[in-house]
């Protein structure tokens, strides 16, 4: 699948706020959204975002089973992220030609994802790993690319790219809870712009 440098993770955002959040992120060229499956009304939110923002890519995350995956597919999710490797999910995705970024943490999990033909993987939680981890993994797995998820924020985002990640996923560090609670869209936009500028300057 096409790799965007930043994926906005939409977790726990109220349905009535979701379009405003999407509008702000798209304004600052963050156009890949992961709606987490365990967010209230997540399937409905995917449909809303797809209708409102046809130029964005709307995916679904926190997919733990083939049943979850089928529902996400029916809702129109364009790509899938998982927090772990699940052979049932990998097999179904392969059979249906679904874009999926499996979540991995160990060499054995990388090897399992590769067995099913997936070589763009989500390393989670990325913050818990030393900078050398990607370099070491890419020794035996030199055809794999990684997205960093977990602990990525404005102050350390460049560290992940320098360590060898090709993309990052950002949730509460991008869409801050205080901005949502206060509907402080101006501050949210300023924050998104700053993150976008950091990434684009690399």
Brief description of this entry?
The chain has one domain (6-200): Aldolase class I (TIM Barrel), CATH 3.20.20.70. Helix content is 44%, strand content 17%.
Helix and strand arrangement:
Elements: E1 6-10, H1 15-27, E2 32-36, H2 42-52, E3 57-61, H3 66-75, E4 80-81, H4 87-96, E5 100-101, E6 103-104, H5 107-115, E7 120-123, H6 132-137, E8 145-149, H7 157-163, E9 167-170, H8 177-182, H9 185-200
Parallel strand pairs: 1-2, 1-9, 2-3, 4-5, 6-7, 7-8, 8-9
Describe what you observe in this structure:
The protein has helices spanning 15-27, 42-52, 66-75, 87-96, 107-115, 132-137, 157-163, 177-182, 185-200, and strands at 6-10, 32-36, 57-61, 80-81, 100-101, 103-104, 120-123, 145-149, 167-170. With 202 residues, the chain is α/β, with parallel strands linked by helices. It has one domain (6-200): Aldolase class I (TIM Barrel). A seven-stranded parallel beta sheet has the order 3-2-1-9-8-7-6. It has a two-stranded parallel sheet with strand order 4-5. α2 links the parallel β2 (32-36) and β3 (57-61). α1 crosses α2 and α1 (15-27) crosses α9. The radius of gyration is 16 Å and the shape is globular. The chain starts with 5 loop residues before the first strand and ends with a helix.
């Amino acid at each position: 699948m096409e790799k965007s440098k930043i994926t906005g993770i939409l977790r726990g955002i109220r349905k009535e706020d979701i379009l405003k959040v999407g509008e702000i992120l798209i304004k600052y060229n963050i156009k890949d959204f992961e709606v987490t499956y365990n967010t209230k009304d997540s399937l409905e939110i995917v449909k809303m975002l797809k209708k409102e923002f046809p130029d964005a890519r709307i995916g679904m995350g926190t997919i733990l089973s083939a049943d979850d995956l089928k529902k996400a597919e029916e809702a129109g999710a364009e790509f899938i992220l998982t927090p772990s490797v699940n052979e049932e999910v990998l097999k179904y995705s392969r059979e249906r030609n679904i874009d999926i970024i499996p979540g991995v943490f160990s060499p054995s999990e990388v090897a399992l994802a590769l067995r099913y033909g997936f070589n763009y993987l989500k390393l989670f939680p990325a913050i818990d790993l030393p900078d050398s981890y990607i370099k070491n993994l890419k020794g035996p797995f030199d055809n794999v690319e990684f997205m960093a998820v977990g602990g990525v924020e404005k102050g350390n985002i460049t560290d992940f790219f320098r360590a060898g990640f090709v993309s990052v996923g950002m949730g509460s560090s991008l869409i801050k809870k205080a901005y949502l609670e206060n509907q402080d869209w101006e501050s949210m936009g300023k924050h998104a712009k700053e993150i976008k500028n950091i990434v684009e300057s690399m």
